[in-house]
């Protein structure tokens, strides 16, 4: 079980993984940092503990760490306990959720492997906003997608904010990076997928008529503002639009994703 360790010295090197998270150049989950996965709050920490990501340590106030007793019963890692004040000095801000956990990254999933074992996928292009990315992963988990493929311009799903906004579901939805964009979409077609590009452009088929709940389908979603590039749309099998009022031209990408994923489920 987790080993409870009292921390009273803010300079204690044992909690360096958690130090100064408010400073962008020091956060271990930032590009150029140490690449650690950081979970915040009891629910998200529980999901990290149940995930393939090897947990290194926990840090929290005693009450929150004790709430995780069952989840940490079979985990041999240190659980550092500190006062809220000491924890705030270590982390760099007051953490309302009261507990953090850090983990190493799991082995990378290859796109071909993820595609071969899936029937319903989301493919993302240019999703650089960490909150939108986190919500998309949460939606994908809720609506039964098999995984996510990340195309050009996507941010890191394991960035701390994405993990938090996804409520930890980014840790359970498999994802893979497509290196050649949009050429790698051919892998989907070679495995029997239809690729449906979500776009409001004229001539797109209504989502109601696109039959996305039949066969293997990959929904292609683009960034806020510009949406999908012409190259990505042209590489898809069909263009699909979500019907909406004439005075609204688009939806938030996470909202559009949720509507599309629901259509793919056939529910």
From TrEMBL:
InterPro entries hit by this protein: Alpha/beta_knot_MTases, Ribosomal_eL30-like_sf, rRNA_Methyltransferase, SpoU_MeTrfase, tRNA_m1G_MTases_N
GO biological process terms held by the UniProt record: methylation
GO molecular function, one term: methyltransferase activity
Gene3D superfamilies: 3.30.1330.30, 3.40.1280.10
All copies of domain tRNA/rRNA methyltransferase SpoU type, residue ranges: 122-261
Presence of keyword Cell division: no
Claim: Methyltransferase is one of the keywords in the record: yes
Key words, A-Z: Methyltransferase, Transferase
Superkingdom per UniProt: Bacteria
Protein name: RNA methyltransferase
Organism field: Saccharopolyspora halophila
Higher taxonomy: Bacteria, Bacillati, Actinomycetota, Actinomycetes, Pseudonocardiales
